[in-house]
Design brief:
heterodimer; A: 4-stranded antiparallel sheet
Chain lengths: 309, 187
Amino acid sequence: MSDRVQQHLRDALADRAETFPYATATDRLSRIDYRPRYDRSLSPRVLGAVSISVAAVIAAVVSVIIAVGGSSPAAYGWTPKPKALTPAQVHAVARALRLKERTSGCSGPGGSVVLADVRGPYTYTLYVTSNVFLTVCQNGVPGGSGAVSASHVPATRIRKAGATYGTINQRPWVISPYRFLQTGQAGADVRSVTVLLSTGTKVQATLEHGWYLVWWPAKEGYSKQLIITTGTTARSNTYETPDNGELPGHCGAGPATNAVVIDARQELKTLQSQHLTSQQQRTVLKTWLRKHGYRALGRKPHAPLIGFC
Amino acid sequence: MATLEPRFETFVEQNLHGLLRIAFLIAWDENEAEDLVQETLFRLARNWRRVAAMEYPFAYARRILVRLAMADAPKRRRRRDELATTDRNAAVSLEIAAGDSGLSTLEIRAELITALGQLNPRQRAVIVLRYFFDLSETETAEAVGCSLGTVKSNASRGFDQLRQMLEPADAGSVSDAGSLKPRSAEL
């Protein structure tokens, strides 16, 4: 191996090593006492007795669960399948939300509610207006957030010629628990949208008025695939989706029916931490977008990106 | 034992940064690096009386760390495949560092980082210990817990893999890795 390559390798590893947050990690580790307070090893006899006791307790708990009937509920009442609402119920949800916003001082975005996604005690409502083309509200969560206005989500449209697909995994701007949310537009021929999570759970999206919305607690896993059923033949189009909400994945090909919303806040944070000029930020963002198969139509490098394929 | 505790704390104070550095470069993941160092320190502490008597306690700590990293590697790799973001973040940050100036060196480094992240843990451990921490082949074998021949073959295969990942698909074989080129020169 040449010296030049060795030098490249050393430099690359040094660069990589520099990205580690030593200060925070050291601080975190230093706060924990690693000195053993007791010997963790147990004698075989004690170990056997403990194992039998634990097994008995587990068996008892499992019996109780089975006796009560059914598996344990999803986290915090969340369900992978949304509750089906009639148009009248959607309007009722919208009215209740408006009332709640007024009474809580949370300013709603205006516009019409196109979609209400109800899973257990949670209701996410999607507004679409001429300016704020996407807004998500959460209702029914103690201490939950209010509407997200256009100023919170400035939008830059991105298109990809001939592509179709869209997905978002983003860290929602709500309080804990930590959740993932995907939303976007769906064409007239889209019959259902489902997200396959890393744990194998399939989460069905609410699909109304050409928009879809799906969310899940992070503990349920990461998004692996977006399954879109289209047409009368119920064809499933499966797309790989971004993993953890920090970076979008690659756009897939398919019928031009769906939308994509991209949360590029992580990129923007990284850019801002590099102290680059706005011109450099723009160039880097464009490169990044091109690399991921997108074409930016807007020039808002400081704004999170929301766009369509 | 109580008299030895300050020495353990001193050891941690002096070597935590180094251990984290090794763990991060081998595990290729921040959280995993912390976990590995945590477990390493725990094991050191349990045997601190014996470790403190050693000539090079850090070498012993490094050996524990590397072997722990090897032992959990498949599980970690599966998890990282699911998350698969850290490497991209690193690559993106380097691309960002390059800005629009078209610095080929930074591009190569960005590609190298991505490629290193795709090596199997043993190959990466050997390359990191051998070429970044400048350990001899014998010391590397000792740290990784394998034979000298395994170190050589892992290093060789690792570099072959790096070359393959960095070469353009149509470039054919490149005899000297000094001519490595990134796959994409988009900046």
